[in-house]
Design brief:
Blueprint lengths: L5 E9 L4 E9 L2
Antiparallel strand pairs: 1-2
Length: 29
């Protein structure tokens, strides 16, 4: 299997209304 050219990071943020899920994608050259 080949290594993915990008990495996906799951970020959980705490807000006044509740919790927010965010996906962060970092591309590597």
């Amino acid at each position: 299997m080949r290594y993915k050219p990008f990495s996906v990071t799951l970020v959980v943020k705490r807000t006044r209304t509740g919790w927010t899920l965010m996906f962060r994608v970092q591309f590597t050259s």
